[in-house]
Amino acid sequence: MRHRKAGKRLNRDSSHRKSMMRNMSVSLIRHEIIKTTLEKAKTLRRFVEPIINSSKEKSSSNYRYAIKMLKNKKVVLKLFERISEMIGKRNGGYTRIIKCGYRKGDNANMAYIEIIDRKK
């Protein structure tokens, strides 16, 4: 039984899930929009929004937290310089998930996940 177990497992073990979320977060911050499956997008939202929220206040502890979670200094700099200014005074909901049909091979639900207020 799965009582009181939060989060989706996505048919991966914990280390694979963690590295996948880290890589997808780096791609999302770098490109500001990515295409993935709907379930991965929903899981990514729960992973990346606290990191974006911490970037609103520029302190050394928040900077260290973002580096610990993302492991990429260039992306962290972009997060603290550009993306924190884009989201401004928004109180949450930094990402948007847009459904975009089904994948041809296995008919999986696909979706775009993007950062709100990005430059188009």
Automatic annotation (TrEMBL):
Which parts of the sequence are annotated with region: Disordered?
1-21
Q: Which GO MF terms does the UniProt record name?
A: structural constituent of ribosome
Q: Name one GO biological process term.
A: translation
Top-level taxon of the source organism:
Bacteria
Give the keywords, sorted: Ribonucleoprotein, Ribosomal protein
Q: Which GO terms describe its cellular component?
A: cytosolic large ribosomal subunit
Tell me the InterPro entries matching this sequence: Ribosomal_bL17, Ribosomal_bL17_sf
Subunit-structure text: Part of the 50S ribosomal subunit. Contacts protein L32.
Under HAMAP family, the record lists: Ribosomal_bL17 (MF_01368)
Which family does this protein fall into? Belongs to the bacterial ribosomal protein bL17 family.
Q: Which protein is depicted?
A: Large ribosomal subunit protein bL17
Q: Which organism is it from?
A: Candidatus Riesia pediculischaeffi
